[in-house]
Write a structure and sequence with these properties.
By secondary structure, the protein is α+β, with helices and mostly antiparallel strands. The chain contains four helices and eight strands, in the order ββααβββαβαββ. It is globular and about 45 Å long.
């Protein structure tokens, strides 16, 4: 992941880079807004994480090959994305699960597209072979974005989330990275 990756989104320059400790409050504000007002893409959460939770997540990811990115516009964090291991067991170590959150004032301006592109590239460069995402079935823009990036619908989880007074379905999406399942993974050192 190149910290100097610059792109254009809605005529404003957007920079995608690795997240920093100083980005935590802005990331939490974005997530809290989605929890209160929107359709969170991360259906596992029941509320916003605390600052220490996000600090711990960043610290743990920093010591792994998993990316944790932010998008900035004019120096302000306008979105963030990260990947975690799909499952903790060693057999799943080549599959990442991702989440993307965009500031509500920047939705529809290409920020999610930039974050997803760089997240895919970072996961592929780190040796992952599959990427998984869980998206609220009512989140048509996110589903369309993932489809444009080669994600296929891999399953529908009916009524798995209850928020804002109703049950929500979740769509599981998946795409291959690198050689995907066409070849075995490289021999790696223990502990990877």
């Amino acid at each position: 992941m190149n910290d100097a990756a610059v792109a254009r989104a809605d005529h404003e320059q957007v920079l995608v880079r690795t997240s920093r400790e100083t980005d935590i409050e802005a990331m939490l504000a974005i997530y809290r807004h989605h929890v209160r007002n929107g359709v969170p893409r991360d259906v596992e959460g029941t509320g916003a994480p605390e600052p220490d939770d996000l600090r711990d997540r960043r610290k743990n990811l920093k010591h792994t090959r998993l990316p944790h990115l932010v998008a900035t516009c004019r120096g302000e964090v306008v979105g963030y994305a990260y990947a975690v291991l799909f499952r903790k067991r060693p057999a799943y170590r080549y599959t990442a699960k991702h989440s993307i959150y965009v500031h509500h004032e920047h939705v529809g301006r290409g920020v999610g597209r930039l974050l997803l592109r760089d997240l895919i590239d970072a996961c592929a460069a780190a040796g992952f072979r599959q990427m998984i995402g869980y998206i609220d079935a009512d989140n048509a823009p996110s589903l369309a974005l993932h489809e444009k990036f080669g994600f296929a619908r891999a399953g529908l989880l009916c009524g798995v989330a209850y928020r804002h007074g109703h049950w929500s379905d979740t769509v599981m999406v998946q795409r291959s990275l690198g050689a995907g399942i066409t070849a075995p993974p490289p021999v790696t050192s223990p502990g990877r």
